[in-house]
Specification:
Distance between the termini: 24 Å
Number of domains: 1
Strand content: under 5%
Largest sheet: none
Order of helices and strands: HHHH
Bound molecules: zinc ion
Shape: elongated
Radius of gyration: 19 Å
Number of strands: 0
Helix content: over 70%
Number of helices: 4
Length: 114
């Protein structure tokens, strides 16, 4: 994988994740706002459950995006250190095709499966 291409791909992946994080943060606030408006007695009715479930779902997506951004940061550091494109587990060179699809992945296909 060409270093310039790798930087480009990581930059794009980071922008996309950050944008999604902003969108999720906005909808999370909407949900919190909506649940604050509802009466406390309604906490256990179906609508309250739906709000709680949606909130948990959005929180999980936010956590996943934060992890993704950390992964991208680590990949960028490994690019600077000259170790980018090698599996952190077994040291195998990760194929370009995989890096093009998942530029921040620290693992080869086999290690990602295991
Ligand atoms: Zn591996």
């Amino acid at each position: 994988m060409d270093e310039r291409v790798a930087r480009e791909l990581l930059g794009q992946a980071r922008s996309a994740a950050q944008q999604r994080l902003r969108d999720l943060g906005a909808s999370f606030e909407d949900i919190v706002e909506a649940s604050r408006d509802s009466n406390g007695d309604d906490e256990h009715d179906s609508e309250g459950v739906t709000v709680a479930a949606t909130r948990a779902q959005v929180a999980a997506l936010i956590a996943a995006d934060r992890r993704k951004i950390e992964e991208i940061e680590r990949a960028t550091q490994s690019l600077n250190a000259g170790t980018y494109g090698r599996c952190v587990k077994c040291g195998t060179r990760i194929p370009d095709r995989r890096l093009e699809a998942r530029p921040a992945t620290p693992w080869c296909v086999d290690c990602a499966r295991g």
